[in-house]
Specification:
disordered N terminus; about 70% helix; Arc Repressor Mutant, subunit A; mainly alpha; homodimer; Tetracycline Repressor, domain 2; DNA-binding; about 0% strand
Chain lengths: ~220, ~220
DNA sequence: GTATTGTTTAACAACGGTGTTAAACACGCG
DNA sequence: CGCGTGTTTAACACCGTTGTTAAACAATAC
């Protein structure tokens, strides 16, 4: 059953990292014990302290790996090599597809920010930078389109929040859905997520292009 | 400093419950210790076990209280005493305002469902019932409006998901925002939430009424 | 005053989690 | 073989958490 025999000395470190990543992504820092990691990796818990001195070291390694992937994933979102809407749509779509490949990332980071914010400190700067770049990027594009009268007036920050929260919450709902309605397997979830993506895009498009004349009542541009 | 002197014997139970509610709502079950509750209530931790035998008992009391409020909050959402859109808009608004009064409820229940689902077991039935009633309620109304050609075709489940996730994530973002951008105090948050509510309503309205002819390409009704 | 009852305290037991250490083990090299 | 290096094990120390208990305390009734 164990993977012990297929791994000569020093697949160990790898095995620990894999087990740790899986558990940390699922349960967060506080609810993952070094014993759980050791058990899942098929080693004694003393090994964790031999390879990585502390639990925190292991966590930071997992966090680093995932944060790099996350931050990298934002760059393709800010390309402008097509007309406004196509560009925005592929941006949403790309972001959604990234989350599809890392469905546990949103809850993982959510947990970390809430319960171990100090572990995120080293990333605060880059995150703020990235967020402000995204907002500024879209501010500019949106303002251009508004000026041309092609879309309705909207606060770009609100639009970014719309897209981000819709995409993220689609994945953050998964634990709720499976916990509350266990009869739907993960196969069902995949189907729902696909239609969710279509819906989110439809929603944003309607928001921008629907009823140009009426929708500009109370949203203010910053 | 303590509140001890203002409370004669047996404000204790009350004090414990209040401390417990605050801490459980903030940190969830696993990350709240009985010692923390005792300290916040200004009593020794043995008192918790004297009044409520176990930590779980205290938690269940807090959970019960909040679940009752939550479930009750869904009924006013399903009134139909006005035209379709006004009715839906006040539904969204009512739901949002409820969350405004209980801003920590979403994360609290989210944590509980993910990490202590067994504590939610007693509510599973009522939750499923409520969810399915809401979906059925809106299914009917939406189908009527679609048949009359007043709104564009849309899967009612997706619309309910849109509204629910937009409203919920507005509040679930708060810990992220304050954790990541501590310079914005809770006063700022209030402002943002107010504009968020307007934006969510605008989004849903545009989704339903914008570009009737084009939007019905790939959303399928169940 | 004393007995009774309910409340509070302080000390303790049991457990699980993190991290350490010394000894056992495996392996390549002289 | 014997030696050194790197790896693994098992036992342990330490701490925080939950829950118990016996004794101290307060208040009321007799």
């Amino acid at each position: 059953m164990g993977t012990k025999e297929t791994r000569e000395h020093s697949g160990t470190e790898q095995a620990i990292m894999e087990a740790a990543e899986e558990l940390f992504l699922e349960n967060g820092y506080n609810l993952t014990t070094t014993t759980m990691i050791a058990k899942k990796a098929g080693v004694t818990h003393a090994m964790l302290h031999y390879y990585f001195r502390t639990k925190e070291h292991i966590f930071v390694k997992v966090l680093d790996k995932n944060m790099e992937e996350l931050l990298a994933s934002f760059y393709p979102v800010m390309r402008k090599d097509a007309p406004f809407w196509e560009s925005l749509e592929t941006g949403i779509s790309t972001h959604f597809d990234f989350l599809m490949k890392h469905p546990k990332l949103p809850t993982f980071l959510y947990d970390t920010v809430r319960f171990n914010p100090e572990l995120m400190d080293s990333y605060k700067g880059r995150i703020r930078e990235t967020v402000s770049r995204i907002v500024r990027f879209h501010c500019k594009l949106i303002q251009e389109e508004i000026d041309k009268g092609r879309i309705c007036r909207i606060d770009p920050l609100q639009l970014v929040l719309d897209i981000a929260t819709l995409n993220l919450s689609a994945f953050m709902m998964i634990p709720v859905a499976t916990g509350m309605f266990p009869e739907m397997g993960s196969g069902m979830a995949e189907e729902i997520l696909k239609s969710r993506k279509e819906e989110i895009i439809a929603l944003v498009r309607a928001r921008l292009y629907g009823r140009l004349e009426e929708t500009q009542h109370d949203t203010k541009t910053i």
